[in-house]
DNA sequence: ATGAAAGCGCTAACAA
DNA sequence: TTGTTAGCGCTTTCAT
C-alpha cells in the first residue's frame, strides 16, 4: 500500500495525500476526511524510508549506551526515551558495549539514519586522549551531540552531568567527620565520571592528611552484578593484603552492596564496625539491610535538562554548553553519621 | 557525501560503488580497492533510508518492551540485542509503556521501518480477549512475531517462554513440603505470565486442600521499585486485614524483597519466622540478607533460543511454534527447606 | 567486470 | 485548494 494507491482510491493526487499525512492546513476538510477514511480503511502507514529520503528532520534522535542492563544506564535510557517521546521525538537505541571501535561504527550507523541528534549515555564515551575523542569532533560537525553524565568541551557538544567530584568529596568528608579515616575506596571504571569521583575522594583524604590513603584505593575488575565476587574481592583485600578499614566508599552501589556482604560474612556489623557509602542512589540501596547510604546524582533531573537543552538547540536557540547538577548524599542505615541534607 | 561523489572520485560508475558496498564478487580486486580507498578516505556511510527504499531486508528487527528500566525486561533486551548483533542484525528498540493503544501505534511505526521481524518482550503484550490481540494477527500477516516470555498460538507467531505455571507450582510445593501452608502470595501483574504463575500457586494450594488460601492472594498496585511501599503494603495486610502468614511467595523479586523488609521492620527473622520466595532470580536476590530464594526462568537460554528460532524462520526453515523451558528454584537463605535442584 | 537507466515511495517546489 | 513533477540516494536489471 503506497501513497499512490491511496490517492487513486481517494480520487486525489499524491500531493494531497501527502499533505493530509503531514497535517498541512492547505487541505479542504472534506478532502481531508475523504483521504483519512481511505487511509484508515486500509490501515496504511507511510514508508519511513521513502519519507527519510526527503531532507527534513525525521524527529528522531539516536541514543547510544554501553550496556542497557546496567541499572543506571537502563534507567537513564528509559527516562530519555520517555521525555523525547513526550516531545514528539522518536529514539533509536544502540547498545555498543565497552569497546571504542564498535562505538565508532555504531555512531556511523546511527548517523546514516539521519537522526537529528545523538545522545551518548554514560561517561565511557569520552576517552582521555584527543585521538580517542576524534569521532566526537567528526560527528558534532554534522549534528549536535548530547552527553549525559559526561563532559567534553567542543562546539555543538552539550554536556549534562552531576558534579561527581564535589559529590564524592563531600561524601568522603562526611565519613571523615564521623571519625572514620581508614576508608577503602572501591571503583570499577576509569571513565571520565569514574576519574572525577576518585579525584574527589583523594582530595578530601589529602586535605585531611590521611597517610597512605592510596593504598586503600582498589579497582574491581569483575562483573559488577556479582555481589558474591565483589564480597570475595573485598575479603581478599582485607585478608591477603592486610588492609584495615572501617569505612567503604564505592563508585557504584553494587560495589557497596558487595562490601556489606563481605561484612556480613565476617560477622562485622554495618554501620557499627563498617560504614558504607554507595553511589547512584539506585533501587539497590533499599534492597539491603541496613539500607545503603548513597549519593544521588539526580538522574531524572539530568535527563529532563538534557532533553530540554536538546529541544532548544534543535530550535536554533543559544544554550549553555554544560549543565552541572550537584549530587547529594542520601543518608541511610549503612552509615552512622548524619548530614544536614535530608 | 553520496554514492555519486564516491563514484566520481573513484572514476567508476555508481553501480560499481554499490557493488563494492554490498560485497558483490563481480568486481575486479583492483577496482574494489580503488573504491574502498575513497570510501575510507571520506569516511562515507551509505544513507540508510535510500538503501531502505529497495525491497530487500534491512537486517533489522524491532524490539518492543514495556519498560526498559524494569530489571527483567532490561536484561532481556540486552541479551537480545547482543545476540542479534552477533548474527548481523540490527535492532530497533521501542519502550511502549503499559498502555495497549500506544503499543499498537508503536508497532505500526516499527513496521513502517521495514523490520524483518518484531520481538515482543514480556507477556504484557498478550491480552485476554481476541480483540486485544487483533493487532498481533494483523502484523503476523506481514512479518514474523517473536514472543519472549509469552505465548500466543497463531500462524507466524513464535513463542519462547518459561513454564511459569509449573515453576510456581513447584516452588509452592517446596514451601508446603517444608510445613509452611499459610502463604501470602504477592503479585503485581495480570499479564499472561502473571496469570500462569498465580494458577500454578493456586493449583498447589488446592491440591493440598489448604483452606481459604485465596484470601492470602494479594495484588500490589504501587511502584514495584519502591521496596518501602511494598513493605508497608504487606504490613497493612498483616495488621489491618489480620492475615497470618509464615511464608511469602512473590511473582517478582522486588515484591519478595519488600516482604523481607516488612519482616525486618517487625523484628521477624527470615527464614525462621518467615520464608520468602521470589521470581526471576535477578540481581536483587543477592543484594539482600539473607539472600533470596528465587525461581530462575533462564532468561539467557530463552533469548538465545528465540534468536536462533528467528534466524531459522527468516531463513525459511520450519520451526516449532513454541519453545518452553523449565524454571528452577534457586535455593538461598530466605527459605529453610532444601530442594533437590542445585 | 562495468556502466546506463529504471524504479523504490515520499516530499516540496512550482503551476494551475 | 489541488495537481504535476523533479528529485532524494540507493539497488538492480539489462546492456556492453
Structural key phrases:
43% helix, elongated, homodimer, Rossmann fold, 3 domains, alpha/beta, DNA-binding, 434 Repressor (Amino-terminal Domain), six-stranded parallel beta sheet, six-stranded mixed beta sheet, 342 residues
Description:
2 copies of one chain form a homodimer. Chain A has 342 residues and is α/β, with parallel strands linked by helices. Chain A has 3 domains: 3-53, 434 Repressor (Amino-terminal Domain) (Orthogonal Bundle); 60-162 and 299-327, Rossmann fold, CATH 3.40.50.2300; 164-297, 3-Layer(aba) Sandwich (Rossmann fold), CATH 3.40.50.2300. In chain A, 43% of the residues lie in helices and 16% in strands. Chain A has 12 helices and 12 strands. In chain A, strand 3 (117-121), helix 7 (130-140) and strand 4 (145-148) form a beta-alpha-beta unit. In chain A, helix 1 packs across helix 3 (29-41). Chains A and B meet through helix 4, helix 5, strand 2, helix 6 and helix 11 of A and helix 4, helix 5, strand 2, helix 6 and helix 11 of B. Chain B binds a DNA duplex (16 and 16 nucleotides) through residues 2-4, 12-19, 21-22, 26-28, 31, 46-47, 49-56.
What portion of the residues of chain A fall into strands of 2 or more residues? 15-25%
Radius of gyration of chain A from CA coordinates: 25 Å
User: What is the topology, as strand order, of the major beta sheet of chain A?
Assistant: 2-1-3-4-5-11
- What is the fold-level CATH name, i.e. the topology of the largest domain in chain A? Rossmann fold
Coarse shape of chain A: elongated
User: What structural class do you assign from the helix and strand content of chain A?
Assistant: alpha/beta
Intertermini distance of chain A: 59 Å
Biggest interface and its residues per chain?
Answer: A-B, 46 and 46 residues
Helix content of chain A: 40-55%
CATH class of the largest domain in chain A: Alpha Beta
**What's the CATH architecture of the largest domain in chain A?**
3-Layer(aba) Sandwich
Oligomer: homodimer
- Quick one: how many beta strands of chain A? 12
Could you state the order of secondary-structure elements of chain A as H and E? HHHHEHEHEHEEHEHEHEHEEHEE
> What is the number of independent domains of chain A?
3
Amino acid at each position: 500500500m503506497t501513497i499512490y494507491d491511496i490517492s487513486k482510491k481517494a480520487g486525489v493526487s499524491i500531493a494531497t495525500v501527502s499533505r493530509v499525512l503531514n497535517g498541512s492546513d492547505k487541505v479542504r476538510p472534506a478532502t481531508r476526511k475523504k483521504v483519512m477514511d481511505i487511509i484508515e480503511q486500509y490501515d496504511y502507514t507511510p514508508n519511513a524510508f521513502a519519507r527519510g529520503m526527503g531532507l527534513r528532520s525525521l524527529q528522531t534522535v539516536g541514543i547510544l549506551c554501553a550496556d542497557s542492563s546496567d541499572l543506571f544506564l537502563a534507567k537513564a535510557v528509559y527516562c530519555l526515551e520517555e521525555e523525547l517521546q513526550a516531545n514528539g521525538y522518536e529514539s533509536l537505541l544502540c547498545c555498543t558495549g565497552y569497546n571504542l571501535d564498535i562505538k565508532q561504527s555504531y555512531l556511523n550507523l546511527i548517523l546514516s539514519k539521519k537522526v537529528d541528534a545523538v545522545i551518548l549515555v554514560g561517561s565511557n564515551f569520552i576517552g582521555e586522549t584527543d585521538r580517542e575523542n576524534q569521532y566526537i569532533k567528526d560527528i558534532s560537525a554534522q549534528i549536535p551531540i548530547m552527553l549525559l553524565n559526561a563532559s567534553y568541551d567542543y562546539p555543538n557538544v552539550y554536556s549534562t552531568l552531576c558534579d561527581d567530584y564535589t559529590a564524592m568529596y563531600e561524601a568522603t568528608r562526611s565519613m571523615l567527620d564521623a571519625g572514620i579515616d581508614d576508608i577503602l575506596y572501591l571503583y570499577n571504571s576509569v571513565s571520565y565520571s569514574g576519574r572525577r569521583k576518585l579525584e574527589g575522594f583523594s582530595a578530601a583524604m589529602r586535605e585531611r592528611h590521611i597517610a597512605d590513603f592510596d593504598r586503600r584505593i582498589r579497582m574491581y575488575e569483575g562483573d559488577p552484578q556479582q555481589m558474591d565476587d565483589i564480597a570475595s574481592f573485598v575479603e581478599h583485600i582485607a585478608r591477603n593484603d592486610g588492609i584495615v578499614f572501617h569505612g567503604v566508599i564505592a563508585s557504584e552501589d553494587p560495589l557497596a552492596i558487595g562490601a556489606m556482604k563481605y561484612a556480613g560474612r565476617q560477622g562485622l556489623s554495618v554501620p557499627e564496625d563498617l560504614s558504607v557509602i554507595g553511589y547512584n542512589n539506585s533501587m539497590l540501596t533499599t534492597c539491603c539491610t541496613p539500607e545503603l547510604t548513597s549519593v544521588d546524582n539526580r538522574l531524572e533531573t539530568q535527563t529532563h535538562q538534557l532533553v530540554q537543552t536538546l529541544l532548544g538547540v534543535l530550535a536554533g536557540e543559544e544554550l549553555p554548553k554544560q549543565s552541572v547538577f550537584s549530587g547529594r548524599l542520601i543518608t541511610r542505615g549503612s552509615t552512622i553519621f548524619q548530614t544536614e541534607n535530608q
